[in-house]
Amino acid sequence: MSNRRTFIRQTGLAAASFLTAHPLLYAGSIESPHTTRLTILHTNDVHSRLEPFPMDGGSNAGRGGVAARAALIRKIRATEEHVLLLDAGDIFQGTPYFNIFKGEPELRAMQMMGYDAAVMGNHDFDAGIENFADQLSRHARFPIVMCNYDFRSTPMENRHVPHMVVRKGPLRIGITGVGIELQGLVPENLYGKTVYLDPVKAASEQADYLKTRKKCDMVICISHLGDKYDDNKVSDAVLARESENIDLILGGHTHRFFDAPRVYRNKAGEEVIVNQVGWAGLRLGRLDYAFSGAKSKILEKNQSLPIGKKEAE
């Protein structure tokens, strides 16, 4: 009997240790009088897909579209008190809407949906940096958050911020953003005097400032670096492992549909969660966090929500 009790106690301790080390796998929640919940919604690589895919028998027929996305966002905001909405770049390029209007309807739609922040993807330079800055100033009030593009002496100099702090109830959420190296990917005449900086170094500096100086409860990095690569190219996976003070990376560029967020350990041994939801506005990422009074937090639930429906559904 003594051996049995010892086995049960040791097994219980091991299970508790495993769940504590892997909060993504824990189905419970933080519950206290001071619990605050935060819902983070995110998109990436929408590529000017304002309308659903045509009903042509393809696998995406009837999917996507800003009307369905807006309706889903409204529904979530109606049931959740604290919601953040972020985009990881490549807002432009992919349909005639961009070819004709150069980004106006895309940014107007995002403004209407109430995006809190976004980063620039490589295709957001496709009509030139002057065009992006002009469309942004005329049609959107949400900030472009970029810390590794030096925009001095460019039209984006006063149209971006390296970081921002959003208040959601008692929570202080820090946000920074990084973009992919432009040289060799975007024609130089389109990005002008923009200087690319090391995203790991830049993001770590901003995250440290947000955590230590601004006392943020959470730091999010919106990224257009891409998921991961076979070579040494900087990616979200590299950023997660080599940075500090970043809690969540919302990625883009590689058009990956994650089945579930990925979990890495940073330089300090702390967990960093990375998520990405494909392309073309087909899905809306949703991450639900619970924060306790002691400022500890867990990811209670994650979802990759389909946008729009096929006619037959």
Beta-strand content estimate: 15-25%
Estimate the mean pLDDT confidence: 91
Secondary structure class reads alpha/beta
* Share of residues in helices: 25-40%
Task: Give me some keywords for this one.
Purple Acid Phosphatase, chain A, domain 2, disordered N terminus, 8 helices, five-stranded mixed β-sheet, alpha/beta, 24% strand, 313 residues, globular, six-stranded mixed β-sheet, 15 strands, single chain
List the helices and strands and how they pair.
Elements: H1 2-21, E1 36-43, H2 66-79, E2 83-87, H3 96-101, H4 104-113, E3 117-118, H5 129-139, E4 144-145, E5 149-150, E6 160-161, E7 163-168, E8 171-179, H6 188-191, E9 195-196, H7 199-213, E10 218-224, H8 236-242, E11 248-250, E12 262-265, E13 271-275, E14 283-291, E15 297-306
Parallel strand pairs: 1-2, 2-3, 4-6, 8-10, 10-11, 11-13
Antiparallel strand pairs: 1-14, 5-9, 7-8, 12-13, 14-15
Helix pairs in contact: 4-5
Can you walk through the features of this model?
The termini are far apart. Helix 2 (66-79) links the parallel strand 1 and strand 2 (83-87). The chain has a 6-stranded mixed beta sheet, covered by helices on one side. The protein has a 5-stranded mixed beta sheet with strand order 3-2-1-14-15, with helices on one face. It is built from 8 helices and 15 strands. The model is unreliable at 1-27 (pLDDT under 50). The chain is globular and about 50 Å long. It has one domain (30-306): 4-Layer Sandwich (Purple Acid Phosphatase, chain A, domain 2). The longest helix has 20 residues, at 2-21. The protein is an alpha/beta fold. Helix 4 crosses helix 5 (129-139). It has helices at residues 2-21, 66-79, 96-101, 104-113, 129-139, 188-191, 199-213, 236-242; strands at 36-43, 83-87, 117-118, 144-145, 149-150, 160-161, 163-168, 171-179, 195-196, 218-224, 248-250, 262-265, 271-275, 283-291, 297-306. Helix content is 28%, strand content 24%.
